[in-house]
Amino acid sequence: MVDDINNSLHEQIQHVNKLINTHFDEAPKDSILSKLSLARRALMDKGLGYKMLSNDKETVDKLDGIDESYARTYDFGKHVWDYKIYCKDVRPETKDIKVLDKKNTCKRLI
């Protein structure tokens, strides 16, 4: 799971490099978050921070408006890591989940 997270962070850094023609170098796994923070800050400084979520600024603005439309609490976020299920790899247990498509044809998810 940690490798998956590190790969995701690496991909985000590479995405920023491509967007603004920067060269945030490969970071050791123990400092990849700080490297991502620097890359994200550079993107924000160019007014392109929304591109971490979408190619369309209007979409991100709409999502931000929805997020800001109600009061938040962080009660769940303060305790989420207390639940072991959040760190569990459930892929083996879900490999046989099937869903119906619009034609009611059964398909495997993975």
SSE topology sketch:
Layout lengths: L1 H19 L11 H14 L11 H11 L7 H5 L11 H4 L3 E3 L5 E3 L2
Antiparallel strand pairs: 1-2
Features:
mainly alpha; extended; 110 residues
How would you describe what is shown here?
The protein is mainly α and 110 residues long. It is built from five helices and two strands; from the N terminus they run H-H-H-H-H-E-E. It has one domain (2-108). The mean pLDDT is 85.
Overall number of strands: 2
State the low-pLDDT regions, or none.
Answer: none
SSE string: HHHHHEE
Percentage of residues in DSSP E strands: 5-15%
At a glance:
The protein is mainly α and 110 residues long. Helices cover 48% and strands 5% of the residues.
